[in-house]
């Protein structure tokens, strides 16, 4: 009754091809944006920022990045953790080498550097396909982590081998370093999430996104009808790595503040982001958000149920978490390969007809 | 002969031994991949799980003791008996066969005909699941696996070869366990080849590997073959788990050797048993030699972490199907 397209007339092509064709969707989008930008910053506290919202936003960026590569272009990558590390270390080197320049610029530049590295590691994708490529991206993962561990220049020869984010201000408010207020952490992440989602959404429905999807659906056929596989694959790697690099830079500078590369950006992180896009939905921007939210919420919720309600020891709950995540991955691949995003789509289809069956 | 050269040879020998262990894990991958087209990422976790189960059964641990204690407030840990090695191995094999059946029945039967990459991601999920179950069943503390395999360097080899070099050469240092592993690996491979060549089930297995539909049409049960293959992979995982477990204790890092087996497979080709072995040896020798000659002196060491992947990556760019793999022909 409420959610339907009847009466929603479009008289221009612009109106017809907008991101949210239905009026109710547009209202929902603007309400979400208003809440995210105008309400949450005033009510947020440290616990909500550090355990839920900030990791959710950062993982959403990483998931959007990987989704572009895996969901839209069909190239499975297990090197996400390594590329996040590139973003983090690029950001660190830029922050310490040019302390006077605004950190927002550094974060974008870190994304750019990661894009170059990503495109370089994407070169073999022209010869290698499918899970051969997935394994080849492991080379990037392990090599990059080793590199940041061994070459002291990357961590400015600090004794611990860690990198620590110095305090940097944006408009007079600290956004990195220990004295950052929670709302500033949240807002800078939200800014980049909004930016990345807008860019990703508009790239994926334009020419370049269509060429990615053509490569994904059948690369040889795409090549024959005139899609340049070199261009499509390398741009997918570069754009994807750009987002992943921004996520890595934020993860290090805003969220954690201090990073030991093997622990934070190891292979587990690559899998985590991959799981986010499988559960959320391959080839969907909304799915990236849904998957990130789900996998950030799950450990918190399990910990709350297991430790606080049931009174179980924490290690037992951690084991259960592995079982549940693994089972969910298999469940989604079997029952709903398009993930939470598809469930959302189905729910909307049902809502359009409700309360009538047809 | 100079001592440096002899040390080089020792490095190569130790690399060969390490390569045998990589090859053992890679073998499990090849078995499943050939018969069902599934690239089983969970192979390493299966090795971990089987080693955990073996250690748990041998020491008479109560499965899920931690969970039971948490739910019912009891305090049980051990049955209070010790199971002899051979019986424990057989019990573990039974567990692995049950696991194989469950995997086939509840996961991969529903995924028949999906794209390989979907199957691959499903096995990553399976790996997480199995790791969690293993920890829940037997606890996550590091266990020692005492199945009576010899440990330490072999004095006999050391004495026999000490005369080769000058005064500063004390003979080759070779771990006894590695030598046992090599022998076991040879027996295992010979057994597998004999099984697939001379038994009815083995022939059926090869038929399925050749062509699913043709095999189905002459009356071979795909379900049975797939359970069989997963069980065999479980057996291989158990052997690998025993060897690695005896070497470095049964702990989570055991599952990471699965990752090391991936470049082995890429070198050898996913469909070839000899390829898995040769690939394992190349990776084993290559990474040890690289570390000895270039990594440790010039690059700050620990190059073993990534050398295998980079080698496989470079290799694949020139030969995408691996050394022994079938040529990839793509059609629209």
The secondary-structure element order of chain B is HHHHHHHHHHHHH
Q: What series of H and E elements makes up the topology of chain A?
A: HHHHHHEEEHHHHEHHHHH
Largest sheet properties of chain A: 2 strands, antiparallel
Task: Note the beta-strand portion of chain A.
Answer: under 5%
> Rg of chain B from C-alpha positions?
21 Å
- Main sheet makeup of chain B: none
Provide structural commentary.
The complex is a heterodimer of chains A (358) and B (332). In chain A, 72% of the residues lie in helices and 2% in strands. Chain A is mainly alpha-helical and 358 residues long. Chain A has a domain at 47-265. In chain A, helix 3 (46-72) crosses helix 13 (285-309). The radius of gyration of chain A is 21 Å and the shape is globular. The two termini of chain A are 13 Å apart. The model of chain A has no long low-confidence stretch (mean pLDDT 85). Chain B is an all-alpha fold. Chain B has a single domain, classed as ABC transporter involved in vitamin B12 uptake, BtuC (Orthogonal Bundle), CATH 1.10.3470. The mean pLDDT of chain B is 79. The chains are: A mainly alpha (358), B mainly alpha (332). At the A-B interface, helix 6, helix 9, helix 12 and helix 14 of A face helix 3, helix 5, helix 11 and helix 13 of B.
């Amino acid at each position: 009754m409420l959610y339907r397209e009847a009466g929603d007339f479009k008289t221009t092509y612009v109106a017809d091809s907008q991101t949210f064709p239905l009026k109710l969707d547009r209202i929902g989008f603007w309400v979400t944006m208003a809440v995210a930008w105008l309400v949450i910053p005033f009510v947020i506290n440290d616990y909500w920022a550090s355990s839920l919202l900030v990791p959710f936003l950062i993982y959403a960026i990483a998931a959007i990045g990987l989704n572009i590569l895996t969901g839209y272009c069909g190239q499975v990558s297990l090197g996400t953790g390594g590329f996040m590390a590139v973003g983090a270390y690029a950001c660190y080197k830029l922050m310490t080498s040019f302390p006077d320049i605004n950190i927002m610029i550094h974060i974008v530049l870190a994304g750019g550097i990661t894009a170059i590295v990503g495109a370089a590691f994407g070169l073999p994708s022209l010869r290698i396909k499918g899970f051969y490529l997935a394994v080849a991206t492991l080379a990037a993962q392990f090599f990059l982590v080793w590199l940041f561990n061994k070459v002291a220049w990357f961590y400015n020869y600090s004794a611990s081998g860690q990198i620590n984010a110095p305090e940097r201000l944006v408009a007079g408010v600290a956004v990195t370093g220990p004295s950052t207020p929670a709302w500033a952490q949240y807002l800078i992440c939200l800014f980049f999430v909004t930016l990345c989602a807008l860019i990703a959404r508009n790239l994926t429905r334009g020419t370049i996104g269509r060429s990615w999807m053509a490569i994904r659906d059948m690369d040889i056929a795409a090549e024959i009808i005139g899609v340049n596989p070199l261009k499509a694959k390398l741009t997918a790697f570069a754009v994807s790595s750009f987002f992943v690099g921004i996520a890595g830079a934020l993860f290090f500078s805003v969220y954690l503040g201090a990073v030991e590369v093997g622990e934070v950006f190891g292979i587990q992180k690559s899998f985590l982001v991959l799981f986010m896009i499988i559960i959320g939905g391959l080839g969907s921007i909304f799915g990236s958000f849904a998957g990130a939210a789900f996998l950030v919420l799950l450990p918190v919720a399990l910990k709350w149920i297991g430790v606080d309600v049931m009174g179980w020891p924490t290690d037992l709950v951690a084991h259960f978490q592995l079982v549940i995540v693994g089972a969910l991955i298999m469940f989604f691949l079997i029952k709903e390969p398009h993930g939470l995003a598809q469930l959302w789509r189905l729910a909307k289809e049902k809502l359009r007809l409700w309360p009538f069956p047809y | 002969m100079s001592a440096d050269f002899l040390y080089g040879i020792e490095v190569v020998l130790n690399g060969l031994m390490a390569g045998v262990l990589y090859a053992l894990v890679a073998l499990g991958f090849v078995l499943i991949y050939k018969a069902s087209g599934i690239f089983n990422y969970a192979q390493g976790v299966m090795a971990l799980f089987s080693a955990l189960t073996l250690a748990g059964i041998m020491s008479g641990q109560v499965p899920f003791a931690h969970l039971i204690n948490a739910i019912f407030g009891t305090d049980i840990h051990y049955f209070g008996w010790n199971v002899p090695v051979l019986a424990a191995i057989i019990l573990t094999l039974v567990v692995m066969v049950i696991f194989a059946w469950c995997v086939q029945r509840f996961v991969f039967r529903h995924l028949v005909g999906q794209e390989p990459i979907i199957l691959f991601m499903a096995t990553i999920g399976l790996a997480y699941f199995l790791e969690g179950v293993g920890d829940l069943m037997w606890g996550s503390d590091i266990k020692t696996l005492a199945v009576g395999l010899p440990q330490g360097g072999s004095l006999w080899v050391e004495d026999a070869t000490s005369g080769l070099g000058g005064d500063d050469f004390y003979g080759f240092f070779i771990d006894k366990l590695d030598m046992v592993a090599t022998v076991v690996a040879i027996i295992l491979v010979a057994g597998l080849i004999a099984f697939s060549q001379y038994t009815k089930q083995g022939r059926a297995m090869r038929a399925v590997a050749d062509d699913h539909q043709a095999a189905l049409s002459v009356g071979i049960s795909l379900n049975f073959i797939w359970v069989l293959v997963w069980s065999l992979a479980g057996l291989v995982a158990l052997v690998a788990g025993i060897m690695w477990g005896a070497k470095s204790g049964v702990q989570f890092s055991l599952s990471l050797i699965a990752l090391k087996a991936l470049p082995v497979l890429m070198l050898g080709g996913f469909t070839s048993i000899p390829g898995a072995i040769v690939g394992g040896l190349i990776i084993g020798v290559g990474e040890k030699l690289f570390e000895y000659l270039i990594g440790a002196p010039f690059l700050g060491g620990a190059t073993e972490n990534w050398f295998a992947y980079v080698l496989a990556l470079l290799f694949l760019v020139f030969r995408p199907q691996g050394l022994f793999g079938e040529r990839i022909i793509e059609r629209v």
